[in-house]
User: Fold this.
Amino acid sequence: MVGFSFVVVRLWISALPVRFGRSRPGLPTGNAPRIDFRRLAWFDRLGAVGYTKSPMVEIEGGDPSALGLLAFRWRMALSRHIQAQVPGQDGAFSAAILTGDRSGIDPAVERDLRISTLYHLVSISGLHMTLIAAAVFVFVRYGLAAVPGLALRLPLKKIAAAIALAAGFGYLWISGFEVAAQRAYIMTACFLVAVLIDRPALTLRSVALAAMIVLAFSPESLMEAGFQMSFAATIGLISAFEALRRQGWWMALQTDPRWRFVKPVIACAMTSLVAGTATAPFSAFHFNLMAQYGLLANLLAVPMMGAVVMPAAVIGLALAPLGLDWLAFTIMGWGVAYVLAVAKFVANLGARRRR
Assistant:
């Protein structure tokens, strides 16, 4: 049995004392026995965790011109603006997926998202980065192609890839450079750079290159659930769609104009099915969790995220300087309301099943 040695510490930051509190080395495993929180804390350079018994004193901030502080100010301003445009928990969820600010989400909503295995939609990760980059790529490429003569004179595909690469970095910066977002950006950047150098983008070689880059900067992430689940989902998706391309019925579906508006929905549903199946073993191992209705929840919610929520978010951000973002954010709020309704429905299904 592991014991804890409690010590009393006094911290000094910017020559101002912080209140007394308690600290201890590392964290217990809790409900995730496969996750070593002390190991994670060691790689995060955290010697101890703790709390204070009284409110913290206010300390002077850093240089207002620092990029980190500027990003934080923009992030909080954008979060408040989105929640003003989309009231309630729909706005809190919308702010979370765009800025990483999850402070407005109610505990009851978080509980529904966790039980339904949809909480990954809140954390900025590979899904959000891919959808943002893909939406920017599609809007820029087809928007420029609508201008007469540009498609014949300029490499629109490469221009769209470069702008999507910059947009992805901006999304990473405004979201606070979270670890999962950094990993997702590296993967997305590998695919977009492949487009810039005229190489096939969605290949397992690109996934291997992204994994090598991530492990070169943080080798310890190999044993983390986020790394394993992200790359398992990506490998599963690329392998599945490569196999589908060799099927005659899938190619006929791609070329048949009668299925023009159904194809994106089918693709999103296939994405949810494959990604959920690929990540299920890792979820069971790391979190001791195998959700009975998790696949159903993802099949119902993820297509809405890809088809409505994230494209509307990109349009809203683009229209913000013109003051017309309210329309796009309202549509995004409708999609988010559907996602939260799915989370509550699936969570209640699980509760009735346990009773």
Q: What stands out?
A: The radius of gyration is 22 Å.
